[in-house]
Amino acid sequence: MKLSKQHLDIGLFTNNKEEMLPFWQEEIGLQYDHLGKLGGGVHQHRHFLGDGPTGPILKINHARDQLVDAGPSGYQNLFIARDNIKEPVQKTDPDGNIVTLVPMGYNGITYIAIEMAVKDLTAFQHFYGTALAFPATSEGDRKIYRAGETLIFANEARDYPKDIPYQAKGYRYLTAQIFGADTEHENILRQGGQEGSAPRTLGTTVRFSFVRDGDGNWIELSERATLTGKAV
To answer: Partners of 52 in the beta sheet?
Structure first.
């Protein structure tokens, strides 16, 4: 997969922006970017996780309608590297999402990392290593996948839910900024990925789709003109 931005973004859904925004801005210290209106009563509050708009983004999607409380997705823990701490500090936001602040370079993390729970490590390795074609490094028996500067690793949990809805409370999806939404979407499906939604275009600026891994976790593929340098 050819990335147009060397970081993944992570998106969560909430009905509780009154508590969630102060937590992420004041307790975690994230800088607010801007508000995007996604339609259907969903407002996306974007926050920088490092390096401003070219770095990773936390997308806090506040939904007007009541969200399903479906339990956690496979995205279990967001790690954020910081210069000003000496040991990991784990926190939980008002909705129960786990975030861990770690010293810069801790386990190779220089921006963010995503810890996942998966039903089958072999299937996880095929999807992230073959379908998404992220390069891997090994730490003992564990494989760590690198999407640009973002690290992804997993622990096996065989009793995991059979289906993971997109619009529910908690961490729900990752976003990869890429150069060709249609090509990447087709390649991932050919390698065994599931389709979340087919590619579609917003104006002349964004073409995007969703795919899902073997456990049903959602990944957004986003071809954005401001990053690729060409209209979609």
So the answer is: none
